[in-house]
């Protein structure tokens, strides 16, 4: 079983490779039968083919991940890390995620559970000034907060749908 340092390094390697757009390098971190739930609560991706499509979408959206301090388990199987993930498409947004990775005896990820919900997504409101739902256009603080919450919920729904394969930028096929 992989030691603690190896398990912690896997999380950092994943972020470095996804940030570099190195899809093959990311896939090398996982077993062929990887089960990847992002977010937990949606049907997971199963196998490297499904994961490849997810990674292609992530890279095409300008994903950049900054992992927090990884924490391991005493059974030599898990590593858990908070991450801050930013994307540029379909609009700039930031996700606060907690990832739980189960590794096999060779140090490869066999299961990933990414925990995040609608309230864990924030948006850069300055990207689209003048939009009807833009908090900057609100006349009161309450209207601004409502617009911000609605925009974050819309963005999270778009991201969830995108991870399920319904919205893809040009050049990305299901």
Automatic annotation (TrEMBL):
The lineage of its organism: Bacteria, Bacillati, Actinomycetota, Actinomycetes, Kitasatosporales. It holds the Pfam family SnoaL_2. Residues 12-107 form the SnoaL-like domain. Residues 121-174 are annotated as: Disordered. This is SnoaL-like domain-containing protein. Residues 157-166 have a biased composition (Low complexity). It comes from Streptomyces aurantiacus. InterPro entries: NTF2-like_dom_sf, SnoaL-like.
């Amino acid at each position: 079983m992989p030691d603690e340092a190896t398990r912690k390094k896997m999380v950092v390697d994943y972020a470095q490779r996804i940030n570099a757009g190195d899809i093959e390098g990311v896939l090398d971190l996982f077993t062929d039968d990887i089960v990847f739930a992002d977010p937990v609560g949606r049907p997971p991706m199963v196998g490297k083919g499904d994961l490849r499509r997810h990674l292609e979408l992530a890279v095409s959206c300008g994903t950049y991940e900054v992992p927090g301090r990884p924490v391991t388990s005493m059974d030599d199987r898990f590593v858990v890390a908070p991450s801050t993930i930013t994307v540029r498409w379909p609009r700039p947004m930031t996700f606060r995620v907690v990832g739980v990775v189960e590794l096999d005896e060779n140090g490869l990820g066999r299961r990933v559970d990414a925990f995040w919900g609608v309230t864990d997504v924030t948006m850069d409101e300055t990207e689209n000034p003048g939009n009807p739902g833009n908090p900057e256009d609100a006349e009161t603080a309450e209207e601004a907060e409502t617009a911000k919450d609605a925009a974050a919920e819309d963005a999270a729904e778009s991201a969830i749908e995108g991870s399920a394969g319904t919205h893809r930028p040009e050049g990305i096929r299901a």
